[in-house]
Sequence to fold (495 residues):
Amino acid sequence: MERLSYKTLEDLKYNGYLLKDAPEKVLQFGEGGFLRAFVDYFFDLANEKHGFGGKVAVVQPIAQGMSERINEQEGLYTLYLRGFQDGKTVNERRVISCVSRCINPYTDYQAYLDCAHNPELRYIVSNTTEAGIAYDEGSTFEQTPPVTFPAKLTRFLYERYLAFGKEKGKGMIILSCELIDNNGQELRRCVEKYIDQWKLEDGFRKWVEEENLFCSSLVDRIVTGYPRAEAEKLNAENGWEDQLIDTGEIFGAWVIEGPEWLAEELPFCDGELPVIVTADHKPYKQRKVRILNGAHTTMVTGAYLAGQDIVRECMKDEDISSYMNKALYEEIIPTLTLPEKELKDFAASVRERFANPFIDHQLLSITLNSVSKWRARCMPSLKGYMDKFGKVPACLAMGLSCLIAFYRGNRMEEGALIAERPGGGTYAVKDDAKVLEFFLRHSGDEPRTLAHEVMANTEFWGEDLTKLPGLEKAVADGLEKVLKDGARAALKSVL
Fold:
């Protein structure tokens, strides 16, 4: 079987869309599965549907990476997007051809700098992990390359300035995809620090400010990456060997914070693709955190104690599914500010994503650090509901009851709190050491005492939750119900 290449596809008479030759218009920091299943997918569609006519030059961000494999396949790879969409199972295959090459700046630094001299280059995208956008004074101008991603970017922008600093419109649109708050603005601040540290001229600082746009963005797609268990089967079906197969869910959303003109310029803001340009991306982040992540967090511990193991199976469980529906539509959505239809459409997509038959999302893996997750994802909805309606939201309160019950372990093993699962067996509760030590100290408490101690712990919640009218009683009643009658009965009791 031949390795995937343009010649292989020609020999096999592949009739899908391909763009073999085009100028590089995008510089991408990061070659991992997420960018290839998300950003590169959008640029590939822009080439096919909107005549973008541009290639993506990928930069390997760390010394050990995938440049050799990407270049061996001429930038080509097979992408599968799979899941439920509009009530139907979707399994979409596409050969992505927008990637031109992968540059390893650790072995060919000049090739990296040469990209700055390309007049057609317009966009920079990045996903260098949450730790990637960081300032480290150990990164210097002279290093080849500088250590941190922001330092590499500053050096690249300086090279661009030397080449085109006297021309208007040759700055870069920088789209940060890292999962940190205000990622674009954090990246800009790091660049400014390197300008100061490296004592670069004022003209460059002014050019960075006036000719370049740093956009914060919110990205949303579950990417499951290389399908090791089924790669051989997929290659046999295709007739080519692909070492870079990528897989992800069909759902995708990209919210980019920027001026109105950006929506006109970006090649994939057409109303068909799930890309939004907005002056403020925060309401969309709130939507994702409170609906998608909030639904996970409020459901997961109760569902696990009720006997389920995988998210998909919870969607088939009438009791758990009904509980999550009520939490979403009656308690979470009413506290958010975006239009109701938009919120309900997003919630419907969340339900389809949870039911994805191609992803085995383990409940126990989602329970990691549930205390801090509940604070960030569920507590704002609970407080917003109480402020708006003057009463305790029953489902969200029950979610906290289930969380407390889930954390009732009786011993520590290898940094985890070991608890007994109803129906037999044990499970490991994983969280910050201080959180686990707290629950271990209170493992012998009566339910109402335990509920009080947990809710009064200001280190957990940033405030004393027992001060919220009626909440302590609701959570304590729920905890007693979970421990006496089981999690399933407790969840059903609030429907």
Observations:
- Residues 282-305 form the longest helix (24 residues).
- DSSP finds 23 helices and 15 strands in the chain.
- Residues 330 and 393 are 9 Å apart (CA to CA).
- The chain has a mean pLDDT of 96.
